[in-house]
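testing teh design pipeline on a random one, pls ignore if ur not involved
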């Protein structure tokens, strides 16, 4: 009985921690569900807006990602090293860097929105571009990348460290989902090729707020996938709490019966 009580208590604690840690994601999920998608041309620009479309390079152009060499408007690279603690292993982040350029979003409504991704909560597909280990050397460009930042791919006796090199990329032509604060600025000047230039342009940028209700969230994932993923931690936590409560009541009633 003592072992059952211990497991029930541990499950309850884990459930509470899971609910608390996923509260921000749950609020993001609820905001996404409650906010309808607005065509860019119809967005007033004075409130939180949700848009969907394709990424178009802006005046700042694109840059080349450091690992895969892809042209991008946003890239987050992460280098992780496998380490040990007792009998368990874990991935320790050695380097994490973000590079970003302002870009446009085209949704076919007749106007483009400008997105400034610096400071945004970017939820992107994470791809492993390379790994290295004891008998697997890291590619030369990745060795140089780490050396320039004061890190090495080898450890004791020159043996390769177990490392993985991850990239999250947003490139021209990618599908984009964005939700966050917006405003309108003066539109592009009229030209012979663009006689019907809009008088203003929708702009979405980060306000620096850590409030999940006010942040700029951008993603190359479909809205439905975001909603599903953001609700996972809360659902698991609530299930563990519910199971713990039921198990606890069972223990109490069993004790009373005896």
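output:
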């Amino acid at each position: 009985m003592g072992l059952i009580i211990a497991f029930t208590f541990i499950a309850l604690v884990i459930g509470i921690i899971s609910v608390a840690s996923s509260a921000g994601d749950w609020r993001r999920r609820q905001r996404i569900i409650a906010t309808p998608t607005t065509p860019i041309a119809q967005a007033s620009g004075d409130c939180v807006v949700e848009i969907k479309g394709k990424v178009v390079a802006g005046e700042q152009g694109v840059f080349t990602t450091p690992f895969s060499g892809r042209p991008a408007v946003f890239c987050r690279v992460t280098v992780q090293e496998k380490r040990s603690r007792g009998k368990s292993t874990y991935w320790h982040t050695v380097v994490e860097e973000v590079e970003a350029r302002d870009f446009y979003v085209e949704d076919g409504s007749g106007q483009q929105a400008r997105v400034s991704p610096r400071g945004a909560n970017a939820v992107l597909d994470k791809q492993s571009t390379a790994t290295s280990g004891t008998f697997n050397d890291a590619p030369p460009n990745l060795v140089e990348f780490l050396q320039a930042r004061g890190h090495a791919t080898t450890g004791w006796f020159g043996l390769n460290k177990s490392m993985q090199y991850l990239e999250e990329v947003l490139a021209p032509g990618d599908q984009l989902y964005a939700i966050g604060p917006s405003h309108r600025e003066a539109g592009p000047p009229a030209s012979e090729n663009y006689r019907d230039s809009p008088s203003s342009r929708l702009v979405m940028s980060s306000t620096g707020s850590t409030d999940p209700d006010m942040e700029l969230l951008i993603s190359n994932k479909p809205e439905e996938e975001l909603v599903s993923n953001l609700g996972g931690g809360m659902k698991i936590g609530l299930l563990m709490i519910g199971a713990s409560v039921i198990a606890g009541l069972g223990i109490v009633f069993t004790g009373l019966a005896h």
